[in-house]
């Protein structure tokens, strides 16, 4: 090793710089690795594949939106198409843990919820999935972050995080409205 | 501190002097650079941590 | 030492064939590449500022209506002309010069290189038609199922194939030189140019396969749809090494030419070559770091590519040391003193040097944002935000472009036998690029951290909050400064090329830096292609093989895109 170094004529200071460089990169790799695999700051991975031409009529994608699957645990199905998301709004109570599934029926899109780490490429034929817990009250717009044609800049929706009481009130209201429309028919 | 300064004559005559050129300015600049890299990188890392987990 | 077979007195003659003077035809041939490149940069750069003005609500695209239909058509032209055409034509021309001058001999197969040039021009013209008629408004990444006119894809293929043909010409010329010079280290600038051309041949396979097997058949109506995920994987197989294809010629100049211009020598010939070989083997198997947020790619592969991307950062850190040390050596020779005071002793009055130094300074910061992009989960913060164009305007649009501009400031006079038109104006040009890009790029990075999407007319977007206004305004100001800068550059090149011929002693020489140590002492394994080629293929198979096989086996061409033209 030393012989080879001599042959290469590596300056001693440059050699130290090489060591510092490697140490820096190893430290960064360890930091992101720990955050990713031990602390839960992870990326989307492999999920199911779908047929972009039929997915919008296939359960559960035929009724995009958010639903509670167990107390405090939610799942949201979002369909992206040029140039809107459906649903346009996702309302959850503070503290809700939401698994978000997104797919596209036409072009590639992006799905990024402002001020959160939810950021996914949306690719026709694939399901993008991330789970996120909404601990702050407020409105969090989700924007299309991939060019998808002339309406791209207007393609967005929002997550509205409300208090538990407001959430329950709005659920009751919605249920009443549903019942109302059913009676009217 | 800076060794190679005294001979303004054509340097090709004495390669040994050139071999021992100590790049002190380079070392200083790159030390600062490493600090900048760590600082800027960490600032984004802290943003990541502040925005919550995505399991 | 293995060098004993050549007598020490032979060393001065070995000094990189400086004795060979290019013929008029060779100079004209290289200049042809440069002029196409400068034309592309000029036209492409006219659109950049229009995008930046839109950010603060000044949409000038309406005025261009009959010719250019939209922000996105302008953005497509900006990306294709600047990132693909300006770079590729300049690189092929500049590498031709580095090979001929480095080896001190004419091209072994000049007709091959001539064919390469014309195939590239044919491809450019073919792709230009749909771009200009708004039938290829798909941006330079042409993500399927955005569907451009078939001529766009075929044109891109021809540009790539033309650059391959030129690359074969470079390789054959180096092989001929080696045959005549057994046991000698090949001259650094020629070797560096050929390494880049060879890396490019491997790297472009991804996009070639994507277009020929998926996109062309689809746009010609032979198949009904595409597999968008697979097309992304193919694209980024090429897309990331593409940035090293841009960058390595700038490194060639920083290592092999700039030290000479600054009155110094190359600090380490061995490590310069080592860096290039590292780029050769790790440039390609890193593409998944562009797909960190993609569905359908397992996290483990993303993490492996993150680590490999870190390993490409290593030769860049080495480059930083070697290049700065080479410059410090030159500056101290010129009388510079002090820990940082020597920087003032660099020839800042030379626009070619200044442009390249400023390019390198901003590249240090581009490196930081690039490292952030590559850092696995940190990508969640910045993916597809304005941060990303902020980043690559420091790298390709400054480290690369401003370096190429600096190279033009000696190369165009050299090729034409003219004097550089108004060097003071050229100095202004370099500094204005530097300042404009700092303002522009910093604002873009900030916008990205706030969550602003890239590739989006934020002036028009309904969700843009008022709190972004300051940054949006700075993007526009930066763009305006850059518009002045690029037009100044074009004027300088135009005036130089059309100026009167000057006495030969007033025409700049090709600056070729000597090494502090005789390159003949560099170990032989740093001057051989075979081990590195094997290494590159093995690494490629490990890093890409399983995912490529999996994605191809599960390919389904079921994404036809929308049934209307989306732009």
Question: Which characteristics define this entry?
Answer:
heterotrimer, B: 55 residues, mainly alpha, 2 helices, 0% strand, disordered N terminus, C: 567 residues, Cytochrome C Oxidase, Chain A, 16 helices, 66% helix, globular
Estimated helix fraction of chain A: 25-40%
Briefly note the structural class of the backbone of chain B.
mainly alpha
Oligomerization = heterotrimer
Tally the beta strands of chain A.
Answer: 10
Q: So, the CATH homologous superfamily of the largest domain in chain A? A: Cupredoxins -  blue copper proteins
User: What value does the average pLDDT of chain A take?
Assistant: 93
CATH class of the largest domain in chain A equals: Mainly Beta
Low-confidence segments of chain B:
1-18
- Gross morphology of chain B is rod-shaped
Describe it for me?
With 185 residues, chain A is of the alpha+beta class. Chain A has helices spanning 2-8, 12-37, 164-184, and strands spanning 65-70, 73-81, 84-86, 89-93, 96-104, 109-113, 119-122, 128-134, 138-143, 156-162. In chain A, strand 2 (73-81) and strand 3 form a beta hairpin. Helix content of chain B is 58%, strand content 0%. Chain B has two helices and no strands. Residues 1-18 of chain B have low confidence and may be disordered. Chain C has one domain (23-553): Cytochrome C Oxidase, Chain A, CATH 1.20.210. Chain C is globular, with a radius of gyration of 23 Å. The model of chain C is unreliable at 1-17 (pLDDT under 50). The interface between A and C is large, with 65 and 75 residues.
């Amino acid at each position: 090793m030393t012989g080879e170094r001599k042959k290469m004529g590596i300056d001693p200071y440059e050699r130290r710089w090489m060591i510092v460089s490697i140490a820096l990169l190893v430290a960064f790799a360890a930091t992101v690795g720990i955050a990713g695999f031990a602390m839960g700051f992870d990326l989307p991975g492999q999920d199911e594949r779908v047929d972009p031409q039929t997915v919008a009529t296939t359960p559960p994608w035929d009724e995009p939106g958010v639903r509670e699957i167990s107390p405090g645990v939610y799942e949201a199905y979002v369909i992206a198409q040029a140039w809107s998301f459906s649903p346009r709004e996702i309302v959850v109570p503070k503290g809700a843990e939401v698994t978000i599934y997104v797919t596209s029926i036409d072009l590639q899109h992006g799905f990024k919820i402002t001020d959160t780490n939810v950021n996914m490429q949306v690719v026709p034929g694939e399901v993008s999935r991330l789970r996120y817990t909404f601990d702050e009250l407020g409105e969090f717009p989700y924007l299309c972050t991939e060019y998808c044609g002339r309406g791209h800049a207007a393609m967005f929706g929002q997550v509205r995080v409300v208090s538990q009481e407001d959430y329950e009130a709005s659920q009751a209201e919605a249920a009443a409205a549903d019942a109302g429309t059913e009676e009217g028919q | 501190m800076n060794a190679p300064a005294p001979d303004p004559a054509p340097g090709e005559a004495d390669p040994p002097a050139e071999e021992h050129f100590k790049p002190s300015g380079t070392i200083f600049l790159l030390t600062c650079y490493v600090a900048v890299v760590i600082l800027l990188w960490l600032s984004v890392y802290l943003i990541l941590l502040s925005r919550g987990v995505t399991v | 030492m293995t060098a004993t077979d050549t007598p020490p007195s032979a060393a001065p003659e070995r000094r990189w064939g400086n004795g060979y003077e290019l013929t008029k035809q060779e100079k004209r041939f290289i200049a042809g590449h440069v002029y196409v490149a400068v034309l592309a940069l000029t036209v492409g750069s006219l659109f950049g500022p229009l995008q930046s003005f839109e950010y603060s609500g000044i949409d000038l695209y309406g005025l261009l209506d009959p010719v250019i239909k939209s922000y996105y058509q302008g953005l497509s032209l900006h990306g294709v002309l600047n990132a693909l055409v300006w770079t590729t034509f300049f690189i092929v021309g500049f590498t031709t010069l580095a090979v001929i001058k480095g080896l001190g001999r004419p091209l072994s197969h000049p007709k091959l290189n001539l064919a390469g040039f014309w195939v590239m021009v044919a491809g450019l013209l073919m792709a230009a038609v749909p771009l200009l008629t708004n039938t290829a408004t798909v941006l330079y990444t042409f993500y399927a199922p955005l569907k451009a006119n078939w001529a766009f894809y075929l044109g891109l293929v021809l540009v790539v194939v033309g650059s391959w043909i030129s690359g074969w010409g470079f390789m054959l010329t180096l092989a001929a030189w080696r045959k005549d010079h057994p046991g000698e280290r090949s001259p650094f600038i020629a070797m560096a140019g050929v390494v880049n051309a060879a890396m490019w041949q491997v790297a472009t396979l991804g996009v070639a396969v994507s277009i020929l097997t998926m996109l062309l058949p689809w746009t010609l109506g032979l198949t009904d749809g595409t597999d968008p995920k697979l097309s992304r994987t193919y694209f980024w197989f090429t897309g990331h090494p593409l940035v090293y294809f841009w960058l390595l010629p700038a490194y060639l100049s920083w290592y092999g030419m700039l030290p000479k211009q600054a009155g110094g020598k190359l600090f380490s010939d061995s490590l310069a070559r080592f860096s290039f070989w590292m780029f050769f083997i790790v440039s390609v198997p890193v593409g998944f770091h562009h797909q960190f947020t993609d569905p359908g790619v397992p996290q483990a592969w993303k993490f492996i590519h993150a680590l490999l991307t870190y390993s490409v950062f290593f030769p860049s850190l080495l480059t930083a040391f070697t290049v700065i040390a080479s410059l410090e050596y030159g500056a101290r020779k010129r009388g510079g003193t002090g820990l940082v005071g020597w920087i003032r002793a660099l020839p800042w009055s030379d626009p070619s040097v200044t442009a390249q130094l400023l390019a390198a300074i901003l590249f240090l910061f581009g490196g930081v944002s690039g490292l952030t992009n590559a850092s696995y989960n940190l990508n969640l913060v910045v993916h597809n935000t304005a941060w990303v164009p902020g980043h690559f305007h420091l790298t390709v649009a400054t480290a690369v472009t401003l370096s190429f501009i600096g190279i033009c400031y000696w190369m165009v006079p050299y090729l034409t036998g003219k004097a550089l038109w108004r060097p003071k104006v050229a100095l202004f040009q370099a500094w204005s690029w530097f300042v404009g890009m700092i303002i522009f790029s910093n604002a873009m990075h900030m916008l990205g951290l706030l969550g602003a999407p890239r590739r989006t007319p934020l002036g028009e977007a309904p969700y843009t909050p008022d709190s972004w206004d300051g940054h949006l305004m700075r993007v526009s100001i930066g763009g305006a400064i850059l518009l002045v800068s690029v037009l100044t550059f074009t004027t300088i090149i135009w005036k130089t090329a059309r100026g009167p011929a000057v006495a030969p002693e007033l025409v700049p020489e090709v600056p070729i830096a000597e090494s502090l140590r005789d390159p003949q002492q560099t170990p032989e394994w740093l001057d051989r292609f075979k081990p590195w080629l094997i290494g590159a293929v093995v690494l490629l198979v490990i890093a890409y093989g399983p995912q490529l096989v999996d994605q191809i086996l599960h390919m389904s061409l079921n994404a036809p895109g929308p049934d209307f033209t989306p732009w």
